[in-house]
Amino acid sequence: MIEFVRSRWMLLFTALLFAAAHAATDGAGDPQAVIRATIEDLRAAVLRDKSAIDSDPNHAVELVDQIVSPHVDTVRSGRLILGKHWREATPDQQRQFIDDFKRLLLRTYAINVSDYTDVSITYLQTSRDTDPSLAVVRTRVSVPGKNPLNIDYRMIQTEGGWKVYDVLAGGVSIVATFRSGVDTEIQQYGMEGFITRLSEKGSKPLTASHTD
């Protein structure tokens, strides 16, 4: 079991990390516009396909993958998550980690997809770095039954537009949280053992009754 992806709040905002770049061509010069348009696009798609998702959660995986995968800096995120282990991994291990980790996140999002449609978002002022290719899009997120939480999207401008590579939920970096969990598992199982476990977890098929 990959225990470091169990928190529902962390799962939700990790899903947003991998959802937050679909509108790159609509707001190439405005990172907040990218976040705003993407969240609304994804919300609309989830609501539109609710029946299909309820009967087959794998449809949510396909939906999110189709919308977001071409627009996320998965390599940058993967390098940050692996940390020191990135340099120790072979190129094949690096590629496999990025592919398997993304697959696990997409699968995890499908399980918790209903949480996403109830989110209410207030957009705050975007912080721009001295490096014009970096920005932090700040939001305040409300979910029924929970206190509002500040969510910050760390973004980088690439040739393909603004892309998210990290999310801070209440000041806690998703990438840093995963890096800690990954480090623990690699120390316990070794790089090959960790990747095998990650691959097995992410490749399990989903069913309508799946609650993992």
Report on the structure:
With 212 residues, the protein is of the alpha+beta class. It has one domain (3-203): Tgt2/MlaC (Nuclear Transport Factor 2, Chain: A, Roll), CATH 3.10.450.710. It has nine helices and six strands; from the N terminus they run ααααααααββββββα. Strands 1, 2, 3, 4, 5 and 6 form a six-stranded antiparallel sheet that branches. A hairpin with a 6-residue loop joins β3 and β4 (149-158). The protein is globular, with a radius of gyration of 17 Å. The protein starts with 7 loop residues before the first helix and ends in a 9-residue tail after the last helix.
List its salient traits.
212 residues, 54% helix, alpha+beta, disordered N terminus, single chain, six-stranded antiparallel β-sheet, 6 strands, Nuclear Transport Factor 2, Chain: A, 9 helices
State mean pLDDT (0 to 100 scale).
78
What is the CATH T-level topology?
Nuclear Transport Factor 2, Chain: A
Q: What count of structural domains?
A: 1
Shape label: globular
Q: Please report which band the strand proportion falls in: under 5%, 5-15%, 15-25%, 25-35%, 35-45% or over 45%.
A: 15-25%
The first-level CATH class is given as Alpha Beta
* Quaternary organisation of the protein chains: single chain
State the fourth-level CATH superfamily.
Tgt2/MlaC
Unreliably modeled segments: 1-6, 19-27
The residue fraction in helices comes out at 40-55%
Number of helices: 9
What is the rounded distance between the termini? 10 Å
- What radius of gyration results from the CA coordinates? 17 Å
Total strand segments: 6
